[in-house]
Amino acid sequence: MAKPIEFNLFAPYNEAASLIGSFSDWKPISMKKREDGYFRTTVELEDGDYKYKFRVQSKSWFFEQDQWVDVTDPYATDIDEMSGNDDSVVHIKDGERVVDTYVWQHDDKHLPANEELVIYELHVGDFSGGEDDPHARGKYKHVVEKLDYLSELGINAVELMPVKEYPGDYSWGYNPRHFFAPESSYGPTSGLKNLVDECHARGIRVIMDGIYNHSESSAPLTQIDHDYWYHHEPRDPDNNWGPEFNYEHYDENLETYPARKFIGDTVRYWVSEYHLDGIRYDAARQIANYDFMHWITEEARDTASMKPFYNIAEHIPETTSITNADGPMDGCWHDSFYHCIKDHICGNTFDLERLKDAIDAKRQGFMGATNVVNYLTNHDHDRLMVELGNNNIFDEEAFRRLKLGAAILLTAMGIPMLWMGQEFGEYKPNTQESSKIEWGLLGNDLNRNLFEYYKGLIHLRKSNHALYTENVDFIHENPEDKVLAYSRWNDEGSRVVVVANFSENFLGGYQVSNFSNNGKWHEWTGNYDVEASDNSITIDIGPYEAKVFVWQ
Prior knowledge:
Blueprint: E1 3-10, E2 17-21, E3 29-30, E4 32-33, E5 38-45, E6 48-57, E7 68-71, E8 79-80, E9 87-93, E10 96-98, E11 119-122, H1 124-127, H2 140-145, H3 147-153, E12 157-160, E13 164-165, E14 178-182, H4 189-201, E15 205-210, H5 220-229, H6 258-273, E16 278-281, H7 284-287, H8 290-304, E17 310-313, E18 331-333, H9 335-345, H10 352-359, E19 372-375, H11 384-390, H12 395-411, E20 415-419, H13 445-463, E21 472-478, E22 483-489, E23 495-501, E24 507-512, E25 519-523, E26 528-532, E27 537-541, E28 545-551
Helix pairs in contact: 6-8, 9-10, 12-13
């Protein structure tokens, strides 16, 4: 039984538009524009799947005046990319539009609070699948197959690199063309929902990387009326990745900010339809509009309703203004942490004040533990194993230094984030070509041992809540021997002390003064107990090694 289905297109200053689709043999059906700026028409459709597009007289400056162009629905929730035409796809069931028929199973599961997070950044296409077949592609379902591995590691949040539909079959996703449709080469919309659902079943939150600074150059809105939604030209040509949304432009006739309206719609849609638990805002420094960011983070939180939500800015270099009292975001990528620890692990420098700034971001002006996201690497940087190799540091020596980095990452103030594969010493440089994780490395002793080290530190972090706080005391500084020790604590009596040796020297019988409590401490990395008396302990500490003491 056919039911009337409405199609609408917001194009307030375009002269005319029509609907074309598989239901009309691609012959145009005229659409009528109302005072609200929408062209509308209804079509009687039986249940099923249909392809369609809009034909519109463009207002974009790079076309002839009022030239007719065929555009994908900017609000299409599914795209047929295989056709080569980026056709919009509409699914009709019981006389209504549906995205899919997925039934959520695990919405009632408890999810960790922001301060408890250990984030794992991954790229769907490269994270999984394809160990045996060099051409097998990673799909949502292959990530699901790896979730038990992430659970064993202790991960409780995954951050997916962008999964909005981009041109072609391989990309990092920073060139989104269709803002409501997930990347079809990774699987169907129900596959992405199942991935989120299976994460929730294991107490793992899902953070999505969102691109709101720009779109891919031929995204539908660019074709309809470019300067209505976008800046006419790049504001910073050296940092330009496509047409940039213009969040300042206000349409007085319709009393709306067009770009804000569109991005607000897409954020609310993704949080509600895909049950997201957080968003990373790419290129926040280029968006450069705190007014808009305040509004969009509030929209995301309101849509998430009662459950925890985490809004993270990628603002390089980081700035306290984006997270602090008046700032729009909960957290900010802490890029100076990465640069500092990398330089120290590679032995290029020893700078106590810089190390202290990285470990205690309050010294840089950040306010709390969730305001910074620390990392030793991410998709934008090569893994530390690559950096060490560039410095001619290999094999056991390299793994020793990777462990030192891990100890600092998981005991510094802030939220730790891993980039896929770093937990077992993946050594491939980052490339914008496909570069799948080398899972076979886990069969090697050194790689497996690093994995177990990360797993133990993550468990320590989750069981010792001193590491959730913003409390850091630097208790021992020795620039000559390149040793730094710091204490993490909370008001319930939990304490962790980290002693880090950034030198190539074995330090035997080394005395660490200013220990916070006398009595018994457990050294976590070597699994032994040690007594502190007269507020100091004496230890042996190897080159580029961290000792982690837990108050008993």
